[in-house]
Every structure is written in structure tokens, then in C-alpha cells.
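Handout, page 2. Input:
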Amino acid sequence: MKHQLTVQHGLLRSSLAIALGLLTPTNSSFAGDTLPPAKIDKAPASLLSFYDGALVFDVEARARFEIRNNNRDFDGTINDDNDDSWFAGRIRLGIAIKPVGFLKFYVQGQDVREWGSDRPNIPGVRGSDGPDEFDLRQAYVEIANYKAFPLGITIGRQRLAYGDNRLVADGRWSNFGRTFDAVKLRYQSDILNADAFFGRVVQIKEEVFNDSDSSDNLLGLYISSPIIPFQTTDLYYFFRDKEDAQPDLDPTNRIDPRGAWTGPAQRIHTIGTRWKSNPKVLGNWDYTVELAGQFGDLWALERNAPGLSYRAFAGHASGGYTFSETPWKPRFGLEYNYGSGDSNSTDAQSESFQNLYPSNHERLGFMDLFSWRNIHNFRAQLTAKPTKDIDLELSYHAFWLADTNDYWFRSNSNGAVRTTMPNGRDVRTIGASNFVGHEIDVTAKWQLTNWISLDVGYSHFFAADYLQDTGPADDADFGYAQVSLTF
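Output:
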């Protein structure tokens, strides 16, 4: 049986490799990947639907060109492995079988590649977008008919994405995305929708079958209700129980060189709420508020030594106005994000907010330089629609560290941007300014057909006092063009 599975897996990989040569890789836009529990996962209208929807195939593919400069070291005198340009490609192939109204089987494979990059050819290392040859992304059974009965259950490898994807998400920008081996129980009614789940995040592994991390467990409850007429009100609880400080890729290595670091050992509770205005209830105005508190324990490496007591907080507030009666329907919005930092790295406590499994791209800038951790972020945003098929956006961000006794953390919330100065001194000990810099993002999306879209964008980061105080402080640039196909 083991040999048979190996042969089948090899055939799947070979088949997709052929498909990669025949298709132009594309994908749907990374924007708008919210999936609150109020929505039921349904296969979109498809050209590949048969037997009145009992058998549905889906295809997602994309190709993206990226160019980056100084995004990791902010040093224009050195060309590191991210001062480069490259192509990233992804294809996803899925099949849904629904033999009866209450039963659904779904399987989805994924192939991820990166071409022309100087970065390590190891998934996730220094931001690498590949490789992960054809592997299993989703495989679940869902038992549910919410029109007849309010309870349903989904068992297997699946997406978990809640609210505005700030804490638990399947990031659409990432070439890999994120899924969980999980059991999810859903309750759905007119006044209350709730998910209760237990899951383990799936690790992207090079040249072997992706599996979930048995030492990294997530328990969650997410409740969403329209009981307040002018908004959707969410309440949630997450408990992350992580036994070690690295992905479970090779137990002989403390920090595994074949996979990205996923944060410290922890046992952390997260309690939060999100309030989001309903469309048009407040006229042209809209708002979103999200507050999250955390408490528990952290360990630097394994749980074989005394840990740190843990308390942290994060918040988000945004509001906007849409000029719906004018051409292009412009919307102007303002936003503030805060994630607490650690005020003292030498004591027995930690206040550095843990961003869990987020999708920070776009929310905290398109350059992916920041996470919802140790941060003050102000954003001004202008969007417009010249036609129904074109979306334009201009965003300005200003970033400060919440506390310079803690590090500046990148978009995945785990890796620090800069830990030491050129002379080797810890950046947390020098009393640096907390103002990090500004970012400008300009993006455009064109929906060419129902199935094909084009995204382009350019971003520039203006380095400020914190970078000047801690080492090289050159500006950074980022640009991309992405073609997507979904049907």
C-alpha cells in the first residue's frame, strides 16, 4: 500500500508538471478573502459542473512577477537574495462530489513553483514562494443541509478563515495559502452563526507529503450575529497550544533549516470581538472595529524550562465614506492598528502580541514588512471604480513600534526584521526612536472576463528614524504584476 500511494503521488506530480507547461498560471485576486462563519462554503458557478451540481471540478491558476529592492536589509550597498526579480506560479485543481443534498466530498491539489530567484529554494525560507510540487491542499467531508437543519460538520483538511483574517486565515497573496487538518462544527440560523473547531496547521514540506504539525494545536469558537440591525457582531475565542519553537519537520533539529520558524512554544488564549457595519445601513458611511486580548504562557524554546507569563492586546478601527453618486464611486477611509509590544525583554513577562495564523498582506501594507504585533499603524486609503470591472487603490501608511524594547516583526509575525546593530548590539537596548517609516501603495485590478483578472501594483517604503538608529536606512521598493484564472 505504501508503494502504491508513492506511485500515485508521483503520477499526480507528473501530471501537474505537464499542466504547468501547458497552462499560463494565474489566480483570483488576493483581496477580499474574508470567510466569516455566516457564509456557507459553496462551489462557485463553474463551466465544469455536471449532473445538476453533483459533480463539480474547479481550477485556480496564477502567474505573478515580482521585483523587490532593500525589502529585507534596507541597505542599498548590498544586493542580498531578495534584491531581485522572479516569477511565482500556482495551480490548484479541485473536485467536489455531492451524491445527496446533505453530503459533500471535496479534494483539492496544489502545485507551487518559483522561478528565477536567488532565494533559498526551500518553502517559506527568506520569503521563498516555492517549491511545493503537486500536493494535497484540501480533502474533507461535509455533512450539512442548513436549510433543513441548523447543524453541520466538516472533517478533514480544510480552510479556516474568520472575520477580516487578522488572526486565523488562508492568505490569498501567499503562493502556498494555509489549511488545517481539522474538525469543524457549524451552527447556522437567521440570528446566529457559530463555528467550533479543533485543528492543526498544515506544514509545507519540500519533496515530501505535507502533513499537519502535531505539536501546534488550535482550538476555536467563532460566533457571528446580525442581532444589532446596523452591524455584524462577532465574538471569538482561540486557544493555541504549541509545544516547541519550530515546525515539526525534523525532530533532530531545534530550528529546522528546511522550514520557516513558526513562533515560540506557547499556551495562549485569545478573546476578541469584531463589529462591522452592514452595507448601506448607515448610508455612505462604513466602519469596522476589532479588539483582541491574550493571556497565557510563552517559552523561548521547549517547555523544559520556566516560561514567561503573558498578557497582550491588539486593536483595529477603520471608517470610510463612499461618494456613491459621483463617477468612479470613490471611497476615502482612515484606519488605525495597534499591537502591543514587550516593554522589558529581561523580565519574566511578555506583552508582545502573538498574531497567530494571519493574512497581513494589504492590511498592513503590500510590502509585507509588518505584522499586527508591536505596532502603531495609521492608514489613509482612497479607492475608485472607473468601470465596474476596474478597481483602483491608493494607500498611505505610517508605522511606529509600540515599544522599542521589543523587535520589529515581519508580516508572518514571527521573524524579526532587525535584531542587532552592525556592531552586534541588541537593537532593543539602545533607546532607538520608534518611528519606522512611511509606505505608499498604488494598485489596480482589471477583471478581464468572468474567469480572468489582472493585478498590478507598486509600493515604496520611506525609511525613517528607527532604521537610521539601528543600521542601514535606505528606502525600499516593490512591484508586481499578476494574471489570474479561476473557473
